[in-house]
Amino acid sequence: RIDRTCMKDTIIGGEKTPSLKLKKGTVVQIPIYAIHRNPDFFRIPTLSTREVPRKDESVAEMTFQAFGGGPRVCIGMRFAMSEMKIALAKLISRFKITDSPQTKLTL
Q1: 3-state class of 3 per DSSP?
Q2: Which of 49, 57, 61, 88 is a good FRET partner for 36, with 20 to 30 A between their CA atoms?
């Protein structure tokens, strides 16, 4: 989860949700685990990779929150993503990867 503290009195909510008044100092918790497993945002909500947002409808910009977001995003995000790409490239170069008849996901 991500915790943030309101810096001033504010109202959140919009067209689809009722408005909620938050006072300065209120701690707001964002349940990342629940968001990443919500079928409204992801086609395969039980899949461990969250890089597959739904394409059939507009999805909130900040749905994928593995590294947080906004001005307080994880400072190691770019480094971690680069490391993952390098590791994946090395892994793929050492093996022959093919699909199988048992594959249930659309590749």
Answers
A1: strand
A2: 88
Residue 22 and residue 51: Cα distance in Å, rounded?
A: 32
Q: Which of 63, 85, 67 is nearest to 76 (CA)?
A: 67
The pTM for the full model equals 0.48
DSSP 24-68: TT-EEEE-HHHHHT-TTTBSSTTSS----B-SSS---TT---BTB
In the chain, where the domains are located: 67-96
The region, left, alpha or beta by phi > 0 then psi within -120 to 50, assigned to residue 96 is beta
Q: Each residue of 72-81: pLDDT tens digit?
A: 778 888 899 8
Q: Which residues of 17-41 are buried (b: 16+ CB within 10 A; e: fewer)?
A: eeeeeeeeeeeeeeeeeebbeeeeb
Structure-derived torsion over alpha carbons of residues 5, 9, 13, 18, reported in degrees to the nearest 10: 120
